[in-house]
Amino acid sequence: MQHIPLIPYPDPIPAPAGILILLEQLFFLIHIILINLILGLGLILFFKWKREKNFFLVNKLIAKKIPILFAIGINMAIPALLFLQVTFGHLFYTSSILMGTFWILIIPFLIVAYYSSYVHYKKFDISWIAKYALLLMIVIILYIALMLVNNLSMMELPEKWNAYFTNRDGTIILWNLSSLYPRYIHFIVASVAVSGIFYSLYFSKKDSTKSHEGLKIFAYATITQIIVGIWFLISLPKDIMLKFMGGNGIATFILVFGIVATILSLIFAFKSRLKISLLFLILTLIAMVINRYNLRMFQLEDNLNLSQLKLVPQWDVFTIFTFILLLGIGVIIYMLKIAFSRPNEVRK
Ligand code: HEM
């Protein structure tokens, strides 16, 4: 076992690691789908932008959804963050500190991006400002995503932490890490794909041309994603890559399952079978989240042993937390129902 003295001792965990990780990954899945939607819908609107009445008429309701999705996307990140901190906190805090300057900037930038999404909607069909507000939102989201990809990659690779001895400014970005680029681009392309299918679903009963257009966006983004996915896989250290290619049975199965689901969702998209395509996309996303977790555990193999984490049960706190969390989710679902239930109404 490689000894890395820089790793702090982990704190005891209040519930079995398996439960905490399951919840973390579940909320991560919800978080990332919502973030995919705000970035992808933002990009679709930006590149389709036309100063035409018809464009505004058709897309205003999509613009209205972005701030709502934004707020829920951030809300769903919080449980993911909490569960991540409990199990991987000693790694995550360290990597956050190593890039602390860029990391802390996420907060003010996030506030600006959130307001920009509102400005975009409010000024959508009345001012040129809308397009630039959307651009600002997109640029900030791209910044935050890069910081998250960097932080989570760095968290998983404690051997990179030595960089601290040559850079104490809190500005460490793993530019030399070959998997950083495909991991980041994988997120961007996924955003376009997920949003394409959402766009198609949204217009499925209203406008078949638009719905078809959404499916086309999904299909081309997914074809691109297959290439980016292969790039991601081969950018990994060889021993880890090989685990996904037969070396580890479960990891290989999940990867193959994800690839098959992707291809099926693509085939059904080309056949304009929206719902089945969506079903396979959801299966793909679940498989990809598990792949990402497997990658984390393979990378951390020498540095973290979950079974060695000290368990000091706090079931009372855990139960109260879970109860409040479920209550909060119930309120959000109710809020969503109200927000999405009047499709024809555009309120100023
Ligand atoms: C618009 C803003 C945001 C964007 C674009 C974004 C994007 C991302 C991306 C791309 C990842 C995956 C990184 C990777 O592993 O490669 C991620 C993970 C994560 N994000 Fe966000 N995020 C945003 C806001 C937030 C906020 C505000 C929080 C905290 C409250 C947060 C918490 C997390 C956590 C905890 C994970 C990792 C979850 C896990 O590994 O289980 N995110 N985010």
Based on DSSP secondary structure assignment, what is the total number of beta strands?
A: 0
Number of helices: 11
Encode the helix/strand succession as letters.
Answer: HHHHHHHHHHH
N-C termini distance: 61 Å
Instruction: Give the strand content.
Output: under 5%
Q: What are the segments in which pLDDT stays under 50 over at least 5 consecutive residues?
A: none
Secondary structure class reads mainly alpha
Most strands sheet: none
Shape type: globular
Bound compounds, each kind once, are: protoporphyrin IX containing FE
How is the quaternary structure best described?
single chain
The domain tally reads 2
Helix content: over 70%
Radius of gyration from the CA trace? 21 Å
Q: Indicate the mean pLDDT.
A: 94
